[in-house]
Specification:
Strand content: 35-45%
Helix content: 10-25%
Distance between the termini: 29 Å
Radius of gyration: 18 Å
Order of helices and strands: EHHEEEEEHEEHEEEE
Largest sheet: 12 strands, antiparallel
Number of strands: 12
C-alpha cells in the first residue's frame, strides 16, 4: 500500500473547478508507480527485466468530485496478484477522511521483449504490501458496448500521446473520449477496457454510442478493431 497527500491545483481542474479526469488518472498512476518504487520493484527494476505493467481495465466511482484547492489523500491498495495479473484499488479522501473517489484497476505484467504476458514471480509478488479489497459496486471487467452509434472523424496518434512503453498512455484514451461527451454531462462512474496498444502514427476512429444513462466512446482502428472502450455513467 502507498499513500500521499496533495492539493487540487489550478492546472488540474476543468472549467467547473473540479479535478479533471486526466489529473485524477495521473494521481492514480503516480500512486501505483511510487508504490512499486517504495517496494524496490519500480521502473528501473522493470526496465532491466524487460517488464512493464500494462493497464487492462479501470472502474472509477465518484462519491464526490474533488474540487479546486481541496486537500486530498491518494492511496493505492494492491490486493491480489495471480498469474500475470495484478489487482489494485485506489482511494481519494478529503481532510476529514471521507472517501471522495474509489477505483478498481486490473494490470497485466508483460514481457516487452517477447510481447506476451509474464507470470508474476515471487520477487515481485512478495515485495508488495497488500490490503483488503475496497468496498464498491464492482461491474464486469468486459465493457460491452452496443453496436451502431456514430463514427467521428479519424486522427493519427501523435508523439505527445505516448508513454515510456512507446504506446498511447492509458490516460490519453480517456482524454480523447471526454471530448465527445455532451455539454453538461456529469460523470458518476467511468469504466475503460483496454484491448490493443495504439502506437505512433496509428489511426484512431472514435465511435459514439448512447444507451440509457451511459455514454460510450469506442476508439477503433480503420478496420473496426478496438483499441479501447470508454464508458461513462451519468451521475
Amino acid at each position: 500500500m502507498y499513500k500521499f497527500d496533495s492539493i487540487i491545483k489550478y492546472s488540474e481542474i476543468d472549467n467547473a473547478s473540479r479535478v479533471s479526469m486526466s489529473a485524477l488518472i495521473n494521481y492514480f498512476q503516480d500512486a501505483a508507480t511510487l508504490d512499486g518504487e517504495s517496494c524496490g520493484i519500480g521502473l528501473k527494476y522493470l526496465t532491466e527485466h524487460h517488464l512493464a505493467w500494462l493497464l487492462s481495465y479501470w472502474q472509477i466511482v465518484f462519491d464526490k468530485v474533488p474540487m479546486y484547492n481541496q486537500h486530498v489523500e491518494i492511496e493505492t491498495i494492491p490486493f491480489e496478484m495471480k498469474g500475470p495479473f495484478g489487482h489494485r484499488n485506489f482511494l481519494i479522501r478529503d481532510e476529514q477522511g471521507e472517501i471522495l473517489v474509489r477505483a478498481y484497476s486490473l494490470w497485466t505484467l508483460t514481457d516487452m521483449a517477447a510481447g506476451r504476458a509474464f507470470r508474476v514471480n515471487s520477487d515481485i509478488a512478495d515485495a508488495y504490501i497488500y490490503g483488503p479489497k475496497v468496498e464498491m459496486d464492482y461491474e464486469p471487467r468486459k465493457v460491452k458496448i452496443p453496436e451502431g452509434g456514430e463514427k467521428m472523424d479519424s486522427f493519427r496518434v501523435g508523439l505527445h500521446m505516448l508513454d515510456t512503453n512507446q504506446h498511447v498512455n492509458n490516460a490519453q484514451y480517456i482524454n480523447i473520449a471526454q471530448n465527445y461527451l455532451p455539454k453538461g454531462f456529469e460523470i458518476g462512474q467511468m469504466r475503460v477496457e483496454y484491448k490493443a496498444q495504439a502506437k505512433f502514427g496509428d489511426v484512431m476512429v472514435p465511435r459514439l454510442v448512447e444507451y440509457g444513462d451511459r455514454y460510450a466512446i469506442v476508439l477503433e482502428d480503420e478496420n473496426g478493431s478496438e483499441y479501447a472502450a470508454v464508458e461513462f455513467l451519468r451521475k
